[in-house]
Amino acid sequence: MGWLFTQYQTRKELIQRRTRSAESGGVIHQCLRHAAVGNVLWTVWEANGPGEQIRRYIGCDLLACERGYGWGYKDLCESMGPCYYTCPLAYLDMVPVANPDWREQVRAWHAARNRKVAVGDLLVFAGLSIPEARVIKKHGRRLIGEYAGSRYRLPPRILAKVVEQRRVEGAT
After folding, report:
1. How far is the CA of 70 from the CAs of 12, 15, 19, 75, 156, in angstroms?
2. Which conformational region is residue 51 in: left (phi greater than 0), alpha (psi within -120 to 50 degrees), or beta?
3. What is the DSSP pairing of strand 40-48 with strand 27-37?
4. Distance from chain centroid for Cα 66
5. Is the pLDDT of residue 137 over 60?
6. CB 88 within 8 A of CB 127
7. Confidence of residue 1 (pLDDT cuts 50, 70, 90)
8. 1 contacts: CB under 8 Å, gap ≥ 6
9. What local confidence, expressed as pLDDT, does residue 171 receive?
10. How many whole angstroms separate alpha carbon 22 and alpha carbon 28?
11. Could you read off the pLDDT of 161-172 as tens digits, one per residue?
12. pTM
Protein backbone atom coordinates (compact mmCIF):
# COMPACT_ATOMS: atom_id res chain seq x y z
CA MET A 1 0.00 0.00 0.00
CA GLY A 2 1.18 3.54 -0.65
CA TRP A 3 1.29 6.73 1.33
CA LEU A 4 -1.88 8.56 2.37
CA PHE A 5 -1.68 12.31 3.07
CA THR A 6 -4.37 14.70 4.31
CA GLN A 7 -4.19 18.39 3.51
CA TYR A 8 -3.41 20.65 6.51
CA GLN A 9 -3.31 17.69 8.91
CA THR A 10 -0.89 18.05 11.80
CA ARG A 11 1.21 15.21 13.18
CA LYS A 12 -0.83 15.21 16.39
CA GLU A 13 -4.10 14.99 14.45
CA LEU A 14 -2.73 12.15 12.35
CA ILE A 15 -1.71 10.15 15.43
CA GLN A 16 -5.12 10.75 17.02
CA ARG A 17 -6.84 9.58 13.83
CA ARG A 18 -4.61 6.51 13.43
CA THR A 19 -5.19 5.37 17.04
CA ARG A 20 -8.97 5.89 17.14
CA SER A 21 -11.10 2.76 17.59
CA ALA A 22 -13.40 1.95 14.70
CA GLU A 23 -16.06 -0.51 13.56
CA SER A 24 -16.19 -1.96 10.06
CA GLY A 25 -18.37 -4.78 8.82
CA GLY A 26 -19.33 -5.75 12.36
CA VAL A 27 -15.70 -6.02 13.45
CA ILE A 28 -14.53 -3.62 16.15
CA HIS A 29 -10.88 -2.54 15.96
CA GLN A 30 -9.64 -1.08 19.23
CA CYS A 31 -6.22 0.48 19.76
CA LEU A 32 -4.93 -0.87 23.09
CA ARG A 33 -1.59 0.98 23.13
CA HIS A 34 0.37 3.35 20.94
CA ALA A 35 3.76 5.04 20.93
CA ALA A 36 5.39 7.38 18.45
CA VAL A 37 9.13 6.71 18.20
CA GLY A 38 10.57 9.32 15.88
CA ASN A 39 8.37 9.16 12.79
CA VAL A 40 7.19 5.60 13.38
CA LEU A 41 3.86 5.07 15.15
CA TRP A 42 3.64 1.69 16.89
CA THR A 43 0.21 0.38 17.85
CA VAL A 44 -1.32 -2.72 19.42
CA TRP A 45 -4.73 -3.50 17.98
CA GLU A 46 -7.48 -5.85 19.04
CA ALA A 47 -10.07 -6.94 16.47
CA ASN A 48 -13.29 -8.46 17.75
CA GLY A 49 -16.29 -9.47 15.68
CA PRO A 50 -19.47 -11.43 16.35
CA GLY A 51 -18.70 -15.15 16.40
CA GLU A 52 -14.98 -14.49 15.78
CA GLN A 53 -12.02 -15.13 18.00
CA ILE A 54 -10.38 -11.96 19.32
CA ARG A 55 -7.25 -11.15 17.28
CA ARG A 56 -4.38 -8.89 18.32
CA TYR A 57 -1.66 -7.50 16.10
CA ILE A 58 1.12 -4.90 16.07
CA GLY A 59 0.76 -2.00 13.66
CA CYS A 60 3.60 0.12 12.30
CA ASP A 61 2.71 3.42 10.64
CA LEU A 62 5.49 5.37 8.98
CA LEU A 63 4.77 9.09 9.37
CA ALA A 64 5.91 11.86 7.02
CA CYS A 65 5.17 15.50 6.34
CA GLU A 66 4.61 16.73 2.81
CA ARG A 67 5.83 20.35 2.95
CA GLY A 68 3.00 22.80 2.34
CA TYR A 69 0.40 20.03 2.37
CA GLY A 70 0.18 18.06 5.62
CA TRP A 71 1.08 14.86 7.43
CA GLY A 72 0.49 11.38 6.09
CA TYR A 73 1.28 7.75 6.76
CA LYS A 74 2.12 4.38 5.25
CA ASP A 75 0.67 1.51 7.26
CA LEU A 76 2.45 -1.79 7.85
CA CYS A 77 2.07 -4.61 10.36
CA GLU A 78 4.36 -7.12 12.04
CA SER A 79 3.57 -9.89 9.55
CA MET A 80 5.07 -7.72 6.77
CA GLY A 81 8.42 -7.69 8.60
CA PRO A 82 8.96 -3.93 8.59
CA CYS A 83 12.60 -2.85 8.58
CA TYR A 84 11.98 -0.74 11.69
CA TYR A 85 12.86 -2.16 15.09
CA THR A 86 11.96 0.57 17.59
CA CYS A 87 8.75 -1.20 18.63
CA PRO A 88 8.35 -1.09 22.44
CA LEU A 89 9.28 -4.47 23.92
CA ALA A 90 6.09 -4.60 25.99
CA TYR A 91 4.07 -4.76 22.75
CA LEU A 92 5.71 -8.07 21.84
CA ASP A 93 4.29 -9.66 25.00
CA MET A 94 0.77 -8.42 24.22
CA VAL A 95 0.44 -9.99 20.78
CA PRO A 96 0.89 -13.51 19.35
CA VAL A 97 4.00 -13.91 17.19
CA ALA A 98 3.42 -13.17 13.51
CA ASN A 99 7.06 -12.79 12.43
CA PRO A 100 9.73 -14.38 14.70
CA ASP A 101 12.66 -13.01 12.65
CA TRP A 102 11.40 -9.43 13.01
CA ARG A 103 10.87 -9.88 16.75
CA GLU A 104 14.42 -11.14 17.14
CA GLN A 105 15.69 -7.99 15.42
CA VAL A 106 13.52 -5.79 17.67
CA ARG A 107 15.03 -7.45 20.74
CA ALA A 108 18.55 -7.07 19.29
CA TRP A 109 17.91 -3.37 18.61
CA HIS A 110 16.82 -2.80 22.21
CA ALA A 111 19.77 -4.79 23.57
CA ALA A 112 22.17 -2.73 21.44
CA ARG A 113 20.53 0.50 22.54
CA ASN A 114 21.05 -0.44 26.18
CA ARG A 115 24.62 -1.70 25.70
CA LYS A 116 27.16 0.01 27.96
CA VAL A 117 30.29 1.01 26.05
CA ALA A 118 33.36 2.74 27.50
CA VAL A 119 36.40 4.38 25.95
CA GLY A 120 38.96 1.63 25.41
CA ASP A 121 36.45 -1.13 24.67
CA LEU A 122 37.07 -3.28 21.61
CA LEU A 123 33.88 -3.96 19.65
CA VAL A 124 33.88 -6.92 17.27
CA PHE A 125 31.25 -6.66 14.49
CA ALA A 126 29.44 -9.10 12.23
CA GLY A 127 28.31 -8.04 8.77
CA LEU A 128 30.23 -4.75 8.53
CA SER A 129 33.09 -3.66 6.28
CA ILE A 130 35.33 -3.31 9.36
CA PRO A 131 35.63 -6.37 11.61
CA GLU A 132 36.28 -4.44 14.83
CA ALA A 133 36.92 -1.02 16.33
CA ARG A 134 38.46 0.25 19.54
CA VAL A 135 36.37 3.04 21.09
CA ILE A 136 38.62 6.10 21.42
CA LYS A 137 36.05 8.79 22.15
CA LYS A 138 32.56 8.94 23.58
CA HIS A 139 30.13 11.86 23.60
CA GLY A 140 26.76 10.79 25.01
CA ARG A 141 25.59 7.92 22.81
CA ARG A 142 27.89 8.90 19.94
CA LEU A 143 31.11 6.92 19.64
CA ILE A 144 34.31 7.31 17.65
CA GLY A 145 36.18 4.09 16.94
CA GLU A 146 39.55 3.27 15.45
CA TYR A 147 40.49 0.37 13.22
CA ALA A 148 43.73 -0.09 11.26
CA GLY A 149 44.76 3.53 11.85
CA SER A 150 41.48 5.03 10.58
CA ARG A 151 38.74 6.62 12.64
CA TYR A 152 35.06 5.82 12.22
CA ARG A 153 31.84 7.26 13.60
CA LEU A 154 29.93 4.49 15.35
CA PRO A 155 26.26 5.52 15.53
CA PRO A 156 24.10 3.80 18.19
CA ARG A 157 22.38 1.62 15.56
CA ILE A 158 25.70 -0.06 14.72
CA LEU A 159 25.82 -1.57 18.21
CA ALA A 160 23.25 -4.12 17.01
CA LYS A 161 26.09 -5.61 14.91
CA VAL A 162 28.38 -6.17 17.92
CA VAL A 163 29.06 -9.89 18.49
CA GLU A 164 31.77 -9.43 21.12
CA GLN A 165 32.85 -6.62 23.42
CA ARG A 166 35.95 -6.65 25.58
CA ARG A 167 38.09 -4.24 27.51
CA VAL A 168 41.52 -3.66 25.94
CA GLU A 169 44.36 -3.99 28.43
CA GLY A 170 46.19 -0.74 29.10
CA ALA A 171 43.37 1.41 27.68
CA THR A 172 42.45 4.56 29.52
Report:
1. 11, 13, 18, 17, 31
2. left
3. antiparallel
4. 22
5. yes
6. no
7. low
8. 74, 75
9. 54
10. 6
11. 888 999 876 555
12. 0.76
